[in-house]
Amino acid sequence: MTGLGFYTETPASSSPPEQLLGAGVRAERQRQGLTLTQLAERSDLSPSALSQIERGVTDPSISSLRRIASALGIGFFQFLVQAGSPDPVVRKAERRTISFPNRALEYQLLTPNLRGPFEVLALELAPGAASGEEPLGHDSDECLLVLHGHVEVEIAGQVHTLAEGDAVSIARNLPHRVFNHTRIAAEVLTIISPPDTF
């Protein structure tokens, strides 16, 4: 289950990152009244693997995290968003961050919560990185704007090459992923409406 590794950065908390994620998964599972076995079946994971994620013993791969979030009907950043009325300003040093080190991929949540009509993410891709093992769709429209570097965006089997300043729109449920085949890091601004991080 380890594979890609998962880390979060939430400066306000002193808990280890993998425990924050696991606690968020457990809290949402319990809020929905699901047993560990029920969520494991819905997400196509073993109860043992899911238990390890919830306890912060192991880090989920991006595909496992997406399956868990999908089975719960939420975006995966929801595991890190706390209840209440957050400050509308998101400081760079305080962004909620999900990193997949073995894939050299990092998402940062730029909106203070997921309750509005959209969410905004910064996606950083190291040279050779891709946003997913395979193209995946989700129930939201999406717009990508390349802030730095060059990327290729695969949408429903068609590949589009984008340079700095280029943008592409992705209709809801179309399978897609982003690649960085260059030798420099790329940064992509992602706007998703309604909020539904994969």
List keywords for this structure.
434 Repressor (Amino-terminal Domain), alpha+beta, Jelly Rolls, 7-stranded antiparallel beta sheet, 2 domains, single chain, 3-stranded antiparallel beta sheet, disordered N terminus, 198 residues, 4 helices, globular
Explain what the structure shows:
This protein has helices spanning about 15-30, 35-45, 45-55, 60-70; strands at about 5-10, 95-100, 105-110, 120-125, 140-150, 150-155, 160, 165-170, 175-180, 185-195. The protein is an alpha+beta fold. The protein folds into 2 domains: about 5-80, Orthogonal Bundle (434 Repressor (Amino-terminal Domain)), CATH 1.10.260; about 115-195, Jelly Rolls (Sandwich). The strands form 2 sheets. Strands 1-2-3-4-10-5-8 form a 7-stranded antiparallel β-sheet. A 3-stranded antiparallel β-sheet has the order 7-6-9, with no helix packed on it. A hairpin with a 2-residue loop joins β6 and β7. α2 (about 35-45) packs across α4 (about 60-70). The two termini are about 20 Å apart.
